[in-house]
Design a protein that fits this description.
This protein has about 160 residues and is an alpha+beta fold. It is built from 4 helices and 8 strands; from the N terminus they run E-H-H-E-E-E-E-H-E-E-E-H. The protein is elongated, with a radius of gyration of 21 Å.
């Protein structure tokens, strides 16, 4: 498997405030267990904080990658040859595509804490998905990586035909 000309990888990590919220969940558990003594209080603090941190970490573990002629977004993998134009969405336009402009057949990899996004048309006639909506902090770089991977795939196809 050959890497794309412009490799791209992004992890959609949870914002820093979520880690503070995780600690506050632990404090809440500790307060609930306060009448039972010091040891349950400490257990509630540690256990509640750890459980909330695991949830925050898991939610923020999704990745978007352009590798080997494919776009991998979360669990979805689509060859770049099946992708059309990419549209960079500012926060207002991204919100519109998440709500009233959204198509129920579209693939949405969305994280509400990431205000910008990239909308990529799917040109494969066999695929009923009209477009991919990808929350990303770096939409310009992702669009450039997809475009570079498409050009590389076209060049490889031409080389194989020759």
């Amino acid at each position: 498997m050959q890497l794309s000309a412009t490799p791209y990888e992004e992890r959609l990590t949870a914002p820093r405030s979520w880690w503070l919220i995780s600690f506050l969940v632990g404090v809440s558990f500790a307060l609930i267990l306060l009448p039972f003594g010091t040891l349950p209080l400490l257990g509630g603090l540690v256990g509640g904080t750890a459980a909330a941190a695991v949830v925050a970490s898991a939610y923020g573990s999704l990745r978007i990658r352009v590798v080997g002629g494919s776009l991998i977004a979360g669990e979805a993998k689509i060859p770049v040859s099946a992708l059309g134009d990419a549209e960079i969405l500012d926060p207002e336009e991204a919100r519109a595509w998440r709500t009233y402009k959204a198509d129920t057949r579209a693939f949405l990899l969305l994280r509400a804490y990431i205000p910008r996004a990239l909308r990529v048309e799917v040109t494969d006639p066999e695929d009923p998905t009209p477009y991919l909506y990808l929350s990303t902090r770096e939409p310009e770089q992702l669009a450039a990586a997809i475009e570079a991977a498409k050009h590389q795939a076209e060049e490889q196809a031409e080389d194989q035909q020759a």
